[in-house]
Amino acid sequence: MPSIMEAEKKGILGTDVVCQIGIVCHDLEKTGKAYAEFFGMECPPVSESGDPERVKAVFNGEPSDAGCRMMFFELGNIQIELIQPDEKPSVWRNDLESKGEGLHHIAFIVKDMDGKLKKLDAMGIALRQKGDYANNSGCYAYVDARDTLKLTLELLENYAD
Description:
Order of helices and strands: HEHEHEEEEHEHEEE
Mean pLDDT: 91
Number of helices: 5
Helix content: 25-40%
Radius of gyration: 16 Å
Number of strands: 10
Oligomer: single chain
Strand content: 35-45%
Low-confidence stretches: 1-9
Structural class: alpha+beta
Largest sheet: 10 strands, mixed
């Protein structure tokens, strides 16, 4: 199994630019209002994760119809995503129940998602959940890098890029 240092030399993700910080919460509107006030901006609109048939989410290797409500704050070069999961099993619900509200992931935009996931798996960084964007313009994957990097990573692949 390649070490983190070996992968770092090769740039396992092909980027070192964090594009998003994800935060799970129980009350999206309350948390969104606090962020909007903190940043001195209007609350962004609430987004829904989308139709499970279109998203085709897989959680811990099993098909999942879990969803979430989201709010996206655009802050210069980084986006803060607030996530309020529904009650169905998902990476968001699992982490909210086991760790409480707060940091969920940092995200990177990648190319060749499947190739990146294979490399990460070979390093012991396992896939937790994946799915397509609701508008079919890309896909996402959450990987468990807690043992090595001490957090969950999200990979985002935009098909138009």
